[in-house]
């Protein structure tokens, strides 16, 4: 068994919970190509990136081949090692900046982590402007309590469907459909969907730091 990985239900699982499966089942080949391109641009070998991110070399190789489905926490580690935002892993190409840019419902850039059930969609053309906005689906049972988010900026989040427990610092708030919360994103924040259906949110952040 590769260090930092374990076998769960017959699938090789990374240290943060992502599993390794065939690319055509998980749809991670696009993510693999983006990771490979970012690594090449940074001038890093697979082993150097793995060491910098604190993950196994085999995991990085599998993700790049489209055979690995990393967890969100693993993506954060890889992004930090590459010195890029996690948003760099979104699929599709960025549109040129325009005074008024329309993002069509069927043309949103997307990041899907199928093992965790997380789905992110950009509502802004990119994350390089002064404001970033996205839609996200958080599956039942999901929690990032072991790896709270923390980054610069301010965020506001509107819950469209379901219910969601949001903890900022040591304060927990329970959101129901229609509720919104604004917080300093530099304070550790975490989410927990204790319900039985996905929580659907729309969030805006300034500056974009996803």
Please, could you describe this protein's structure?
The protein has 5 helices and 11 strands. By secondary structure, the protein is α+β, with helices and mostly antiparallel strands. The protein has 2 domains: 84 residues, lambda repressor-like DNA-binding domains (434 Repressor (Amino-terminal Domain), Orthogonal Bundle); 102 residues, Sandwich (Jelly Rolls), CATH 2.60.120. A 6-stranded antiparallel sheet has the order 3-4-5-11-6-9, with no helix packed on it. The protein has a 3-stranded antiparallel sheet with strand order 8-7-10, with no helix packed on it. Strands 1-2 form a two-stranded antiparallel ribbon. The two termini are 33 Å apart. The relative contact order is 0.14. The N terminus is likely disordered.
Termini, distance in Å?
33 Å
What is the helix tally?
A: 5
Main beta sheet: strand number and arrangement? 6 strands, antiparallel
C-alpha geometry? globular
What structural class results from the helix and strand content?
alpha+beta
Domain module count: 2
Reading side by side through the largest sheet, how are the strands ordered? 3-4-5-11-6-9
Report the average pLDDT across residues.
Answer: 82
Uncertain segments = 1-27
Strand residue content = 25-35%
Q: How do the SSEs run, as a string of H and E? A: EEHHHHHEEEEEEEEE
């Amino acid at each position: 068994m590769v260090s930092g990985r374990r076998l769960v239900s017959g699938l090789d699982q990374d240290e943060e919970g992502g599993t390794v499966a065939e690319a055509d089942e998980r749809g991670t080949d696009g993510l693999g190509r983006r990771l490979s391109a970012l690594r090449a641009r940074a001038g890093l070998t697979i082993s150097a990136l793995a060491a910098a991110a604190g993950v196994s070399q085999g995991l990085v190789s599998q993700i790049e081949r489209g055979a690995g489905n990393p967890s969100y926490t693993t993506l954060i580690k890889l992004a930090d090692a590459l010195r890029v935002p996690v948003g760099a892993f979104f699929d599709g190409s960025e549109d040129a900046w325009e005074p008024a840019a329309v993002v069509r419902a069927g043309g949103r850039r997307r990041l899907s982590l199928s093992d965790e059930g997380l789905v992110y969609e950009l509502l802004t053309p990119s994350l390089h402007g002064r404001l970033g906005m996205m839609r996200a689906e958080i599956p039942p049972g999901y929690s990032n309590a072991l790896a709270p988010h923390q980054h610069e900026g301010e965020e506001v989040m509107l819950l469209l469907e379901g219910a969601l427990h949001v903890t900022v610092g040591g304060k927990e708030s329970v959101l129901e459909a229609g509720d919104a919360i604004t917080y300093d994103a530099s304070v550790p924040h975490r989410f927990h969907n204790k319900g039985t259906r996905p929580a659907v949110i729309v969030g805006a952040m300034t500056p974009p730091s996803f």
